[in-house]
Amino acid sequence: MSLTSYFMEATYLIASILFIFALKGMSHPETARRGMFLAEGGMFAAIVGTLIGAHIVTWVWIIVGLLVGSIIGAWMAIWVPMTAMPQRTALSHAFGALAAALVGIGEFIAHGTEMGGVTRGALGFEIMLGSLTTTGSLIAAGKLQGIIYGKPVQFRGQNIINLGTFLIMVGLAGFFWIHPDAVIAFYSMLGVAFVFGVLLVIPIGSADMPVVMSLLNSYAGLASAATGFVLGNNVLIIAGTLDGFSGFILSVLMCKAMNRSMTNVLFGGFGAVIAESTSNAGGVMREISLDDAAMQLAFANQVVFVPGYGLATAQAQHAVRELAELLEERGVTVRFGIHPVAGRMPGHMNVLLAEANVPYSSLYEMDQINPELPQTDVAVVIGANDVVNPDARDNPKSLIAGMPIIEVDRAKSVIVLKRGQGRGFSGLENPLFFKPCTSMLYGDAKSSLTHLAQAVQHV
Ligand code: NAP
What we know:
By secondary structure, the protein is α/β, with parallel strands linked by helices. The chain folds into 2 domains: 80-268, no CATH class; 276-458, TPP-binding domain (Rossmann fold, 3-Layer(aba) Sandwich). It is built from 17 helices and 6 strands. It has helices at 3-25, 29-53, 59-79, 85-111, 117-145, 158-178, 183-201, 209-231, 234-257, 262-267, 290-298, 309-314, 317-329, 348-355, 366-369, 391-394, 445-457, and strands spanning 302-307, 333-338, 363-365, 378-382, 413-418, 438-442. Strands 3-2-1-4-5-6 form a 6-stranded parallel beta sheet. Strand 4 (378-382), helix 16 and strand 5 form a beta-alpha-beta unit. The N and C termini lie far apart (76 Å). NADP nicotinamide-adenine-dinucleotide phosphate is lined by residues 207-208, 210-211, 254, 258, 308-310, 313-314, 341-346, 348, 383-387, 417-426, 444-445.
């Protein structure tokens, strides 16, 4: 082995270690930023190692790729707003998967017929996963951005057509594996995989996209691991496998937090129709004035804020931090209760509150905050709905029965900030809003919080 090869393998080892520590760091909000820096360091080491140790045919395309990629990356990092983060992530997956598919095509053209059986199998795997993830992620990004119809697209015989397309794709991969010179089978597999990616994602509603995206992330990772096998590149195998399995574990955790099975997310068409579901909701909703709400907050001993999707759409994170600070100055204990699937992507609330500099020590996970709620004077629900719906706990016939919730209804008093009678992601009515302990403060969350802060100052 030459000196440059030793150097390359050493940088790959460093990169792999950095990736593992990065994942560990990203598992907690407090260390997530450090985790991202470690991941960047790992990626930098892997790129430098490859550029120095690998045989470079021409630098021209590498420099062009580096420039174009950096410009697109910088644009996505600087100008894409926080609210558009899910679709930005979907686009990143599409690019990663397309890169894997293109490398696979390149390898097929360069060494297709000379490959051994294992490498050819890995190539087929890489092409299938890379291509279907590319189109699947583009559809996911389009749905989340509202460019493509967000509701689940379902038609008669859909599952049969999807299964048929899948079998054709795998059949073509098998044919290519047996006949390495079958150019038509190879490119047909590529085309069918692109179509399958579209078919896979259109039946899923935009609100379920985060689960689908973390699954696609997992596919993109596995496609990269397969690329590693094709190229004999260790860092790709390690990083791809880590990415693949962490994406899969995340998808499973998200499904668990919504009390839904993966099959239900992928084939359930959630959001297309509301299943036969009963609700305990009924009665009248009691409205509260701004001044009365401010009074309750100002004289409370303990206040718990429970943010949800509405906080994100209203971009109310700074307003809630300001209100929390005002209350703390008055001696009120303020906590934030964070539900694992509040909002529309994992960690949505953590990211927003961190952006507004809400201290991590004030953030409580669902299991930590629930025992605190009976001692809480006021629970303030900010644009959250499903994650505080008591039907999930009390009504076995509810569509969301069994989904763990933040039990705000156990607090002495609940103030719900929302714009009107709009329902949550599940489309269900929420009996919390009709309970005697609950009062509604209508309006956009940001403006309600800003006005509440002003009113608290005058109490
Ligand atoms: P939600 O159930 O979607 O409810 C959001 C509420 O916010 C609505 O009732 C809406 O009522 C209100 N709202 C919207 N815009 C507002 C604004 N500008 N100001 C004030 N209120 C506003 O949200 P959630 O409680 O956070 O629950 C999240 C849901 O998404 C769960 O069902 C979860 O399973 C699902 N989901 C989450 C993820 C994830 O990774 N986090 C992934 C997939 C699915 P009005 O229209 O009346 O204002």
